Amino acid sequence: MNLEQIYLESTNGIALFLLASMVIDLIVSLVSGLKAYKGKETLANYGVFALYLASRKLVWDGLFLSMMLACNTIAPAALSPDSLWVWALAFVGVDFLYYIDHRIGHEVNAIWSFHSVHHSSEEYNIGVTGRISFIEGIYRWVFLAPLALIGVPAYMILLTKVVSRLYQVWVHTNLDRGKLEALSGILVTPGLHRVHHGSNEHYLDKNYGAIFSVWDRMFNTYQKPDVAPTYGLINPINTRNPLKINTVVLVKNIQETFRIKGFTEKIRFLLVKPGAFVEKTSSQLNMYTFSEEQTPKNKLSV
Questions:
Q1: Rg of the chain (C-alpha set)
Q2: Residues 295, 72: Cα–Cα separation, whole Å
Q3: Which of 97, 103, 127, 266 has minimal CB crowding within 10 Å?
Q4: Rounded to 10 degrees, what is the CA torsion of 160, 156, 149, 90?
């Protein structure tokens, strides 16, 4: 079986693995008395996951593959999938580029419009793994393009991405009860990722890694758990409608972009950190002011 066949088989396996993991996590959590699931919120997560899965199958998987193959055609050389060092390059490269992708998703307003969907849930469990914007596939391929452009085969990149995605499923559990933190110096653990989902002030913009936590340690975004996280956005979106969950922050940012005067200011708003935009006032020229909803403490506001 070649890489293409293995990848095509794996795409079906991911969905089944995630669904099975959701069921196992739900049952074990209920039996063990963990209050990780909240009924309607859980159903909302499943609804968002259904939209995301449909969009991937219908559009984004094909786009991702097409763009990786296109990048391969202009690579200076074609690296061999039979080489272990190429697999190592793909594995480490995918993980590092995910860190960049994920960090930009939090620290660039335009991209946060989509990634905020994943953080808007007020519960934390494996069901949240599938709470992903059904629109974000339009740009996610860009972050892995560098690997394809240096000649790493497209299907190798995609298979490595599958491994990363499978790993990320189980860091969204509470079943570990904090017993895996001895590994957190090297690997992303459920505890580290719970921090990432926390809206506690000192948890914001921390722990972006997928598999390895070393990137967070290298770039000063590492935070161990020290208090129980508060999940969800600082200003809750107050909806369990899957379509609205996908569009609340996006619509607000679009409206704000139209409201802001001046092309340069509009672009700056889209590129700064969420909640950090400081708008020039007409009366103060070079003076700046914060509106109540734009203060840095509201980084996760919607």
A1: 20
A2: 44
A3: 266
A4: 40
Largest Cα separation within the chain, whole Å, is: 68
Supply φ then ψ for residue 105, to 5 degrees.
-60, -25
Residues found in the chain: 302
- For the chain, give the mean pLDDT: 90
- The whole-number pLDDT of residue 298 equals 41
Q: Which two tokens stand for residue 193?
A: 């990722």
DSSP secondary structure letter of residue 236: -
pLDDT, tens digit (0-9, with 9 covering 90-100), for 268-288: 999 999 987 776 654 433 333
Q: Which two tokens stand for residue 199?
A: 């809206």
DSSP code, position 182: G
Looking from the CA of 291 toward its CB, the CA atoms found within 13 Å total 10
Contact 71, 138 (CB under 8 A): no
- The pTM (predicted TM-score) of the whole model is 0.90
Domain definitions of the chain by residue range: 3-218, 256-298
Which spans in 189-281 are helix H? Answer: 190-197, 214-218, 242-259, 263-271
pLDDT, tens digit, 9 for 90 and up, residues 176-233 = 999 999 999 999 999 999 999 999 999 999 999 999 999 999 999 999 999 999 999 9
Specify which residues 279 forms β-bridges with.
289
What does the pLDDT read at residue 73? 97
Tokens for 147?
């690997």
**190, 271, 274, 287 from 294: Cα distances, Å:** 31, 14, 8, 16
Contact (CB, 8 A) for 49 and 132: yes
Strand partners for 212 = 187
| Burial class, 75, CB count within 10 angstroms (exposed 0-12 / middle 13-18 / buried 19+) | middle
The closest of 77, 99, 83, 296 to 216, measured between CA atoms, is: 99
